[in-house]
Amino acid sequence: MDKDEEKVGGQMIEDEVLGFIMAVIVVTAVVAVTLAFFNPGNNYTVIGLLGINGKIGDYPSNLKVNQSVTLYLFIYNHEGKAMYYVIYEKLGNYSTVLNSTYPGYNLPVLNVYQVIVGNDENVTLPVVIKIPYPIIDGKVFFVLYYYNGSEVYSGEWLQLILNVTE
After folding, report:
1. Using alpha carbons only, how large is the chain's radius of gyration in Å?
2. How far apart are CA 5 and CA 22, in angstroms?
3. Is the whole model's pTM more than 0.85, yes or no?
4. 140 and 132 Cβ atoms separated by less than 8 Å
5. Regarding beta strands 83-92 and 121-129, do their DSSP bridges make them parallel or antiparallel, or are they unpaired?
6. Could you read off the pLDDT of 64-75 as tens digits, one per residue?
7. Separation between Cα atoms, residue 123 and residue 72, nearest integer Å
8. Considering only CA atoms, which of 99, 149, 123 is closest in space to residue 46?
9. How many CB atoms lie within 10 A of CB 140?
10. In this predicted model, what pLDDT tens digit does every residue of 101-158 receive, in sequence order?
């Protein structure tokens, strides 16, 4: 190997090391900015809907009237204390819109689930969906409340769009 080949090989190694160092710097900067500007706060609750196998995905889209299907709610508590949660399963149609201040007060309630979750703990709660009448593009909502002397809407909810036929 002559001296020119050694320089080229040595330069490639130096470039790889420099590239690695730059990647570490970029990742560190992104993490620092994220932690500085996007902090969910000290207290929060996470709610998620898991499919038939208890994992993300495998959500039904078509059911028959009164057909039961079991899905799972994942709830993680980072509120700084044990929490008593109440989850209302409600039924709406495709044009029904919930938001952080409107939990669908007038929607029919299909089921109510209650669970106590310790701080920094999570639970996976089986929920059974069973729609009593046909609906096209219906929305099944899971609306999260917590108990603090009275029920308080958390502003958190999930939805699943379903077609239910005879």
Report:
1. 24
2. 26
3. no
4. no
5. unpaired
6. 999 999 999 999
7. 10
8. 123
9. 24
10. 999 999 999 999 999 999 999 999 999 999 999 999 999 999 999 998 999 999 999 9
